[in-house]
Design brief:
The complex is a heterodimer of chains A (354) and B (385).
Chain A lengths: L3 E11 L7 H13 L11 E5 L2 H4 L4 H5 L11 E4 L3 H12 L6 E9 L5 H5 L15 H14 L5 H14 L14 H5 L3 E3 L2 E2 L8 E10 H7 L4 E10 L13 H9 L11 E3 L5 H10 L8 E2 L14 H14 L5 E8 L5 E9 L2
Parallel strand pairs in A: 2-3, 2-4, 9-10, 9-11
Antiparallel strand pairs in A: 1-7, 1-8, 4-7, 5-6, 8-12, 11-12
Helix pairs in contact in A: 4-12, 7-11
Chain B lengths: L4 E8 L11 H16 L8 E5 L26 E4 L5 H14 L5 E9 L5 H4 L13 H17 L5 H13 L14 H5 L3 E3 L2 E2 L8 E10 H5 L6 E10 L13 H14 L4 H4 L2 E3 L7 H8 L8 H6 L23 H17 L12 E8 L4 E8 L4
Parallel strand pairs in B: 2-3, 2-4, 9-10
Antiparallel strand pairs in B: 1-7, 1-8, 4-7, 5-6, 8-11, 10-11
Helix pairs in contact in B: 2-12
Classes of the chains: A alpha/beta (354), B alpha/beta (385).
């Protein structure tokens, strides 16, 4: 496979961006990501994005977002109705062809105008599960209950994940929820969707993220510290909730193996896991075989601190790459998820330039 | 570094107004099963699945590929979902082809569908967004002024569109999967049908269909193991431009011309009219056939309509266009682009049945979407390039 690196990353996140639409807040992020490379969107070999029409409440929501890139003269461009991390995968595939050296990847989503919990229930089987309208938190709670009943985790573990996330988020200017929290005090909070408490849920976030990829020597020309994609893979589990063991994530384990996570001797230095709900971080940590005493989990605070839907997976890759570029480690794993209860998962293994 | 890839098998459903007998999962599975049978491969030989469809609001299911994972045999495999407006069926096939050409997978299943009867596409397209330009009711309202622009610029006779429809609907009679089978359709019936959006008459519009299309795309090694003929992918290209902009020519879009140029360059085509044997192009409203003939470089600007009138694009003409009956005869929106790519592949495989162009060696599949701004194309051939 051809070596491909993250050469630039930028993001925007806000609790409730009322004054600007998606295009208006995406545009400056595209500019910010391109600036250090000295390239324009016209210089890109390929452009690809991830978003969802159902967040905008409009068919073809991605069409006008293209204006933030300025596709004139026309550009080679594509779009996935998935988290931006999967758009990055498509860009990585396209770069393998060898005829282009750069790609622009972006994702955007505005969750605040609608009821995101109910919107996400439209992802379910439309005949059997969807008509029951189980919201995202209730589905996650079912999964958390299965995990607790399996004996692999306790409510204390969930509180520990939340406290660590918010503490780590203190260093992340894009994080919404941050601060020092006492684990015991968190457990005194009332239940929201048994066994989850409000703090086990992600915040509602509007946001956008942009990553510039470059292949081979071009990556070194464009930035001082490219962060190389050593492996990337994604897998999906079935959706039917009754047919899955929700306490595990086989598609994450498989994607991690295919992405070569096991080839990093001694484990990676840091992990950015796309776990919108606290218990999901525990499932993912186990699925990827991460050792918390060796690997820093979610140094950005993760999706519990800031969760722009359709963007948060791409943000994990960007955050992990930014930390490696800053010398905060040599190897990292980034993970993105989609669908109810961690149905679909992508794993990206990253390494700093030597 | 790019490796050879070929279409190993194709499948589609019979396109109809409402497939009330199957769920969305049942619909896509039907097309996928047929593609696998045609390719002579088993489900466990498929490495990845790439799904495409037009806006999720056309069925009212958000990211329906998640729920379709089991029906498409994707559990434990990579599954991607592409959405690039009306061009999506083409873009989806291209993403699948790229997974093979990049050397990542041996066999990829690609599926595109629309089950329009589950919702209402026209109104899903007509949501009024605050502070945004209204798209008026449905796609016809958007495209009619562009057609008027073409007529004014080219001086094309006003019955050009009728002739396109008549040809495509007669071609559709030879395609058992086509939605509209209007035996005995006449020029007069088309000319006298109600005017919907001047100059587009009811008979000049595509139907609303439920349907799915699927293809198995494989590596050179996988292709050589096939018993049935394959279609070698000679070139792929996508191009996009903005919906609005002062420099845009919506009649003859820049992105379409660039996309054609790119796909011809990759396929080694220097004279498309001579080197391409037949074309499946995305014509949702009759007048888009002459417009795309020009945009794709088969005719000089302003002269595409002449190829309609002199029979060049007829099934037995010099450059047959939309042998299957095209989008004017079947329009499961998300699948419509893939059906163009699929029909092009079947032509060069020699498996197009009654609407086969004799000895077709090289074919172009074309799809477009949005406000004539997204383009996806591929050139397929009976021989390796």
């Amino acid at each position: 496979m051809r070596d491909v690196a993250v050469v630039s990353y930028a993001q925007f996140a806000a609790r409730n961006e009322q004054s600007r639409n998606e295009i208006e807040f995406l545009l400056p992020v595209v500019k910010e990501a391109l600036a250090p490379t000295g390239l324009t969107s016209q210089d890109m070999g390929f452009t690809v994005s991830g978003s969802s029409d159902y967040l905008a409440g409009q068919s073809f929501a991605f069409v006008s977002a293209l204006d933030a890139v300025g596709p004139w003269p026309p550009i080679a461009e594509s779009h996935v109705e998935m988290d931006g991390a999967f758009a990055l995968y498509e860009a990585w595939v396209r770069l393998q062809h060898g005829d282009i050296d750069t790609a622009l990847v972006y994702a955007f989503g505005k969750s605040s105008p609608g009821d995101i919990g109910r919107v996400l229930s439209l992802q379910l089987d439309p005949y059997l599960a969807g008509p029951l309208w189980p919201d995202a938190a209730s589905l996650a709670a079912l999964q958390a209950r299965v995990l607790l009943d399996s004996g692999k985790a306790s409510e204390k573990d969930l509180a520990r994940v939340v406290a660590r996330s918010r503490r780590s988020a203190l260093g992340n200017p894009h994080a919404q929820l941050k601060g020092e929290y006492d684990e015991a005090a968190l457990l005194d909070e009332p239940l929201y969707a048994d066994p989850l408490r409000k703090h086990d849920l992600p915040p509602i976030t509007d946001g956008a993220a942009v990553i510039v990829l470059a292949a081979g020597d071009r990556a070194r020309d464009l930035c001082e510290k490219p962060v190389w994609i050593r492996g990337i893979d994604h897998r999906i589990d079935g959706q039917a909730l009754g047919s899955r063991d929700l306490s595990v994530s086989p598609s994450t384990t498989l994607a991690g193996r295919k992405a070569g996570l096991g080839d990093i001797g001694g484990g990676v230095d840091l992990a950015e896991l796309h776990a919108p709900f606290s218990h999901q971080e525990l499932i993912l940590t186990e699925a990827l075989g991460l050792d918390e005493t060796r690997t820093r989990i979610n140094p950005s605070g993760g999706a519990l601190a800031s969760n722009p839907v359709m963007v948060a997976g791409l943000v994990r890759i960007g955050e992990a790459a930014a930390r490696l570029a800053a010398g905060d480690g040599q190897t990292a794993v980034a993970h993105a998820t989609g669908g109810p209860c961690l149905q679909q998962n992508l794993v990206c293994v990253l390494e700093a330039d030597k | 570094m790019s490796q050879r890839a070929a279409v190993l098998g194709t499948g589609q459903t019979k396109h109809v107004s409402a497939r009330k007998d199957v769920s969305i999962a049942g619909l896509v599975r039907e097309a996928a099963d047929r593609a696998l049978a045609d390719a002579g491969c088993a489900w466990d030989e498929i490495d990845a699945v790439v799904v495409g469809k037009a806006p999720d609001m056309f069925e009212g299911v958000m990211m329906p590929e998640l729920y379709l994972a089991e029906a498409l045999g994707a559990v434990g495999k990579p599954l991607l979902r592409v959405h690039t407006a009306g061009s999506v069926g083409g873009s989806t096939a291209i993403v699948a082809a790229h997974l093979v050409q990049a050397g990542i997978h041996e066999r990829v299943l690609t599926v595109a569908f629309e089950k329009q009867s589950e919702s209402n596409a026209m109104w899903a397209l007509s949501i009024r967004i605050p502070f945004a330009q209204p798209l008026v009711a449905g796609a016809g309202g958007y495209f009619a002024p562009i057609v008027r622009g073409y007529i004014r610029k080219s001086g094309a006779p006003l019955d050009t569109g009728y002739r396109v429809v008549l040809k495509d609907r007669l071609n559709a009679l030879k395609n058992p999967y086509a939605h509209l089978h209007q035996a005995g359709i006449t020029y007069e019936q088309i000319a006298e049908s109600p005017l919907l959006w001047d100059p587009i008459r009811y008979a000049e519009t595509c139907p609303s269909s439920d349907g799915a299309a699927a293809m198995v795309i494989g590596s050179e090694r996988a292709a050589e193991a096939c018993e049935r003929p394959v279609a070698w992918i000679h070139g792929t290209a996508v191009r996009s431009e903005p919906t609005m902009g002062a420099g845009r020519d919506r009649v003859n879009p820049h992105a379409g011309r660039d996309c054609a140029k790119a796909v011809y360059a990759e396929a080694g085509i220097t004279d498309p009219f001579r080197q391409i044997d037949c074309v499946e192009m995305y014509v949702p409203f009759s007048w888009f056939e002459p417009m795309w003939l020009e945009n794709l470089g088969f005719a000089e600007e302003g002269a595409g309509w002449k190829m309609v009138h002199d029979g060049t694009t007829a099934l037995d003409g010099e450059l047959p266009v939309n042998m299957s009956g095209g989008v004017l005869s079947s329009n499961p929106i998300g699948a419509s682009g893939m059906l163009r790519f699929l029909e092009a592949a079947n032509q060069v495989r020699g498996l197009a049945g009654e609407h086969q162009v004799p000895n077709a060696k090289t074919a172009l599949g074309h799809a477009y979407g949005g406000g004539s701004q997204f383009f996806a194309m591929w050139v397929v051939g009976s021989e390796k390039k």
